[in-house]
Amino acid sequence: MTVTLDQPLELPCGATLKNRLGKSAMSETLGTTDNRVTAKLTRLYRAWARGGTGLSVTGNVMIDRRALGEPCNVVLEDRRDMDRLKAWARAGRENGTHLWMQINHPGKQAPAALNRETVSPSAVPFSDPNLKRFFHVPRALTVAEIEDLVRRFGETAALAKEAGFSGVQIHGAHGYLVSQFLSPRHNRREDAYGGSAENRRRFVLEVYDEIRRRVGDDFPVSIKLNSADFQKGGFTEEESLAVVEALDARGIDLIEISGGTYEAPRMAGQGQRESTRRREAYFLSYAEQVRSRVKVPLMVTGGFRSREGMAAALEDGATDVIGLARPLVLDPAFSNRLLAGEDAVSAVAPIRTGIRAVDNAAMMEVSWYTLQLARIARGKAPLADAGGLSSLVKVAGLIGWRRLRMGRLRAG
User: Which domains does the chain have, with CATH numbers?
Assistant: First the structure.
């Protein structure tokens, strides 16, 4: 049977996505400087719900306010923001949309300007000198701290369910804490959480088990997982496939496939082969390997631009959900156009300034899209002709002010 974009998808837990289009997580940084929920998040996710997307995954919500990935991350440790969370969930679930909260701990990818210390499976610093100066050398977690982090993942998931979110996603990709545990490059422990590949995946399986225990069997639990780290001595595709098989055996509802870290940002399209670009999605070949081993629903994100490319990926069976990110920033209603049968092609294109050092920095494009998200959250249309360099300067200034404000809050 041919699978089409408008076809519903039933998940293992029994929940059903209304179509095959998913908004992948993007870091909004739209919380307050003391990491609380704002009305901007409500407006932003209402726009995507009304735009026709079947599944929206939030930007990373942190499980511990002592470990922040960016200024103005939302942190969910308790019920203090329950009314605001409920408003966010109601808006994001309009129009029959599923809204899943992505929950995360940055591990050593926690900037020094925001965090007094950083923790990781092992005390392994960044090797890239351009990144190293912005991050503390991490401290290796104790077993008791690991157990507390597992509990925190479960607590955040339970609070998300209470607030009305219809699912959760574990962030196990892009070099954050779960990803660090999986990678032999970053995890050099010699106890039950390190050494063998089996031990290195113990943390993610314990996190999944605790979340499932807290939310029940009929609530969607998913993961964003690296196909590989694309770093020497890092997490490999074969190891990733073993993690997929272990999670599938436990009953996970959906696996979103991505890849890369801060040091090797393949999730942004860097280093992709021309044959990969022709198929549009960056990780389809890996998804085909996953499909040959397990039946768990898959979402592939990164590179999709045309209705034709999305339809081909579904028809080939390589993925069950088309993951979109930047196309839904440029046009929050892009999904409606696709579902209406338009021969739609996203206008996403590389942002260039003409300054090589700036253009080669992933932060420049991140800054550009951060400003567009903020416009949508204020009820304004995206500004497609905004300059790359000016966006970077604006965001750098905003981040500086937020960091200063957050420092004053901590000092007080």
Answer: 9-348 (3.20.20.70), 352-412 (no CATH)
